[in-house]
Specification:
Elements lengths: L1 H28 L3 H14 L4 H13 L3 H15 L3 H13 L3 H17 L4 H10 L3 H14 L6 H10 L3 H14 L4 H8 L10 H16 L3 H13 L3 H14 L6 H12 L3 H14 L3 H18 L5 H15 L6 H14 L3 H12 L5 H17 L3 H14 L4 H16 L3 H11 L5 H19 L5 H14 L3 H14 L6 H14 L3 H14 L6 H15 L3 H14 L6 H12 L5
Length: about 600
Amino acid sequence: MKSFLTLGLNFFFLLGFAQNEELAENYFDQGEYQKAEAIYAKLHQKNPAHQNWLLGYTETLQALDKPEKAKETLKSYLARQGDYPNIQIELGYLYQKQNDTTKANTYYEKAIAQVKRRPAFAYSVGNAFQKYGLLDFAIQTYETAQQIEPKSNNKIQLAKIYGEKGQYLAMFESYTDLIIENPSYFQILNRNFSQYITAHPENEANQAFRRVLLQRIQKEPDVIYNQMLSWLYVQQKDYAKAFVQEKAIFQRSASRYSNRIFDLAMIAKEQDDFSSAQRMLEFVVDNVSDRREWRSAQRELLIVKRHLANPSDYTKIEQEYHQVITEIGRGRESFWIQKDEVEFLAFQKLNSEAALEQIKTIYAQDLLEKQVAELKLLEADLKVQQSNFNQALLLYTQVEKMIPNSDMAREAKFKVAKTSYFTGDFDWALTQLKVLKTSASQLTANDALELSLLIKDNSLEDSTQADLKRVAKADLLQFQNKPKQALQILEHVLSDYKSPSIVDDVLLRLARLHLANSEIQKAIPSLQRIVTEYSDDILADEANFLLGQLYSQQLNEPEKAKSYFETLIFNHPDSIYFVEARKRFRMLRGDQIQ
């Protein structure tokens, strides 16, 4: 019973101290230094060895302009408790604030001397120096410990300090030493590199990193240096140079895996560097041994060739599709390549009849249910292209029933709504959209909301729905690969509209059509008009995002791009573009992105 009471008393005793410390911290943060001093003085008196209370007390004394008392308190602690190096640095910094650099350096050197005797002190001493921006002393601390105990793990701290001082060569030398000791560190440490490495090859840190790696490759070739150089070139979006490094890695790898080159090709493709992607995928096709990987590379290679193709190349591409499909054999394994060929015939060669014939051939094969549903969805799209709307609606409905409650079913339902909208059946379109607005897919829900508002707003303002019908016709023509006709209709709507709510919808459609035709300067006025005159409407977020993209990527005006991304971030936090806009804004601002 007695021991239980003792334990209880100790608990409340410690709880009381914790509450007092928190109260003192609050007083300090609020600038009530005298109240903070009174509490810290009592705490320090109760337990003179407690460093947190000592430092809180001396910091409060300095805030009250009592530096002499603070110095005496620290000296007393060192005399009674021992020569703790971090406290010596605190005392030294007090002298430095009084411009007594001689005494300050004396205490700093005493702290470093203790690291010579006990290298394990390096982290606490180095951290104390870094706390006050005394980076040269921090470097001296870590280098001293490293010389005495080479196995001590001080290279990360040294590298970070070199980076803070702008000594990029030394920083990357330290990081590279660590990575050579343990190559798996690279996947962790390259996050630190992102503080300094940018997309610009002429950036000082980029040049330093490249120099370190090239010098090391010449002196002691190691595949990890090629991996790091490849990473650097990817950050700079120089995918051709990254490919050179990846080929060197492939040639020196015993396993001869081509996954890294395939992944690099996908990055280049995503960034629209189709020429580099093509060379990479051709390399994979020629060197890969795994049949599944070969199929994937062949499929992506044909897609990339389609991006680079002119109409004069279409016959050759069609022949290549036939060769690859023949080699694989028609069936489940070649389904996606066969589907790609249908899309190529329909949307690039603009030969819907040939595409539909291919679909019949694919239907006759032994397919999975999901593959059949994918094919029906594509067939329905082609029926819309041909204005066979009833057949299209039937196919979309079949897909909904085949794979209910799936993303594909929701896509099919949205296409039912869109087809009804194309044909002017706005009431039935709204019925379908009502369900989709609560979709688990944010993209589907956003598209459904946008179309629903377009129909509702422009039905209320114009009972004849004349403007809405013309915009629907323009959307259908665009879907049917007739952009010039769509553009003409939209320009007419903009010049004689009856429903004011239709204007921002028309402007965005005009901008998209101009961008699809690489007419950036024609697209910008429409987008700027949306963000200026319709800043609170549902399309403003997309307009801001598109302008940010254009000014950052095509027009090389980062400050303008930042302003559009910033507007989106602060005014449209629920936008589907929010995450990407924030990332791009931070990159343009120079923040570290992980």
